[in-house]
Structures are given as C-alpha cells and as structure tokens.
Amino acid sequence: MPVSMVVTADTHLPKRARDLPHVLWTAIDAADLVVHAGDWVDVALLDLLEARARRLLAVHGNNDHGALRERLPEVARAEVEGVRLAVVHETGDATGRERRCAARFPDTDVLFFGHSHIPWDTTTSTGLRLLNPGSPTDRRRQPHCTFLTAVLDAGALTRVTLHPVAR
Length: 167
Description:
Blueprint: E1 3-8, H1 22-30, E2 33-36, H2 43-52, E3 56-58, H3 67-71, E4 75-80, E5 83-88, H4 97-104, E6 110-112, E7 120-123, E8 129-132, E9 145-153, E10 156-165
Parallel strand pairs: 1-2, 2-3, 5-6, 6-8
Antiparallel strand pairs: 1-9, 4-5, 7-8, 9-10
Cofactor: a divalent metal cation
GO molecular function, one term: hydrolase activity
Family: Belongs to the metallophosphoesterase superfamily. YfcE family.
C-alpha cells in the first residue's frame, strides 16, 4: 500500500513566520507520514503536528531546546513500505556530505536532513539517498521557501517533488 509523505524542516516558528504556509498544512493533512528534520523553535508546532499528522517522524535541531529536546530524538528511524528511513538535523558541510552520511547511516535507504535551508537531493555511492526539503518559512539564499512530498511503495521512494512556497 503506497504511503504518501510530506517532508519539512527549519520551520523556525514563530521567529520566521507566524504559522506554516497554508499549502504545507494542506499537504500535511493529506499525507500518511510527516517528516520534520528539526529546528521547530516552539513546542506549539510539535503539538499541532502530533494532533494533525497521521504519523510523525521527527527530530530536534540546533535551535530546539527544553521540551523539544525532551520529546524528540537527535536521530529518528523507521522502516516504511520496506524503505529504511532516518532523520537528522545536521549533516555538516556540503563538501564530503555523501561520504560522511554513507558511513554514519550504513543501514539506511533514505536520510532526511535540514539545517542549511537549502534543498538537497543526491545519492551516495552506497545507494543512500540524501534529501533536504529546504525551509517553508526562511528561504535564506534560495529563490523560494520549499518543502518536499514523496511516496513510499514496495521498497522504493518515488515521486519526490520539491514544492516552492510563495511568501
């Protein structure tokens, strides 16, 4: 049975925005699985996502403290539709990222990460897929704020789509 996903990170609420963009909430409400790769900033968003998401796989980021660190791990893992997923906030510099992540996550098919606010989609020499959804609230040096959607089905990650968000 295919599993629809929404992937986000670096939401930084309420510092970068008052709320998530409507288009992201719509995608979250329709998804089977929501992944958040850290930097929530306010625990209120975690409470909302836990209430609205059918399933949540999430970690804390470097800007998350207090209750967020108490409730969320540094690394989260799940196997969904035969795909081994991991989520972490930081992976270090872009230079050498594939090598470092392949060594750190040898039993993972897809690694979701955040921190940079820069969308990223590469595959390591070991077959590990690295995905960063960017940020839906803080584009930094990017042309748009962004988030990802994808589908997990029969052992494969498919239909990975980067969605630009109007601000």
